[in-house]
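Hi R.,

As promised on Friday, here is the backbone we talked about, encoded as structure tokens. Could you run it through your design pipeline when you get a chance and send me back a sequence?
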């Protein structure tokens, strides 16, 4: 009898785990028949949402969706283009007539859209805000791309890559031809504030004094308020025409390049897509490159006011 009891006890111990697993399986099957599948439940029912800590949520930087710019232009019958004068992108003669690479591009775009075009003059201090306020549909003046600007407006694909040239004052730096000549504590380098040129100047001339300006950097050099400036341009010769007796290029080649593009308001991806598509078509047929070569040439640069 004792032997029979021990055999039964050992059998029970052996079968216990299998019986427990069977019970769990049966229980799960019963629950599956009375509850919806996990895939049918909302995510919040599967993984409880964890509320964000107070004060961590911020309003989006992107401007809220606004008007349909492309449809508005077609209905208005006019394309409004914000510009500032900068050779050879946008120039203006004594009669007020506009010319330049950006002007050519905008006139052809308006023609293909079957609308007229209005060039609205702004200035570097307020051009971004004028765009955001809706004073014009886009800013097309060889606008330099930068991280700071990209946080408040959208850029198209680059229209050109401008060379960044070192422009110097003849009286103050007439014998300096090397970049190292300008990397001194007594030297002033003028740059357009909050641009890629400012960052480039601080990297190339860490010991020099960087002078941030919101106007024409080359004229700051011509007046003697800075020894040199870093200036993006497609036509470096045109820079010297303003004051040939006072300005010179220490180096014939640019020290760097910076992309330029059109600027548009945030919140209208359809308009941005249209502009990029149009630019891709004109680039593909070689027209953009041809127009850039024209305005970089001495004939094109000579039309500057």
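Update: got your reply. Pasting your designed sequence below so it's all in one thread:
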């Amino acid at each position: 009898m004792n032997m029979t009891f021990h055999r039964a006890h050992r059998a029970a111990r052996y079968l216990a785990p299998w019986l427990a697993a069977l019970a769990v399986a049966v229980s799960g099957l019963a629950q599956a028949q009375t509850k919806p599948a996990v895939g049918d439940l909302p995510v919040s029912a599967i993984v409880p949402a964890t509320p964000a800590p107070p004060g961590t949520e911020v309003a989006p930087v992107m401007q809220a969706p606004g008007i349909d710019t492309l449809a508005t232009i077609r209905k208005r019958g006019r394309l409004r283009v914000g510009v500032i004068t900068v050779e050879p992108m946008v120039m203006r003669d004594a009669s007020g007539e506009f010319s330049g690479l950006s002007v050519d591009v905008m006139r052809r775009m308006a023609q293909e859209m079957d609308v007229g075009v209005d060039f609205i003059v702004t200035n570097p201090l307020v051009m971004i805000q004028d765009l955001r306020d809706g004073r014009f549909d886009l800013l097309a003046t060889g606008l330099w791309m930068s991280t700071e600007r990209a946080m408040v407006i959208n850029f198209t694909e680059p229209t050109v890559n401008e060379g960044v040239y070192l422009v110097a004052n003849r009286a103050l730096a007439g014998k300096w031809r090397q970049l190292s000549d300008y990397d001194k504590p007594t030297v002033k380098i003028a740059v357009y504030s909050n641009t890629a040129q400012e960052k480039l100047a601080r990297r190339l001339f860490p010991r020099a004094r960087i002078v941030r300006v919101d106007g024409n950097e080359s004229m700051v050099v011509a007046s003697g308020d800075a020894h040199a400036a870093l200036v993006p341009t497609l036509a470096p010769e045109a820079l010297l025409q303003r004051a040939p007796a006072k300005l010179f290029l220490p180096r014939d080649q640019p020290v760097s390049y910076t992309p330029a593009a059109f600027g548009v308001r945030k919140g209208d991806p359809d308009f941005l897509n249209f502009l990029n598509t149009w630019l891709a078509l004109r680039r593909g047929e070689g027209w953009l490159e041809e127009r850039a070569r024209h305005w970089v040439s001495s004939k094109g640069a000579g039309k500057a006011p």
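One thing I noticed while checking it: The radius of gyration is 33 Å.

Thanks again,
M.
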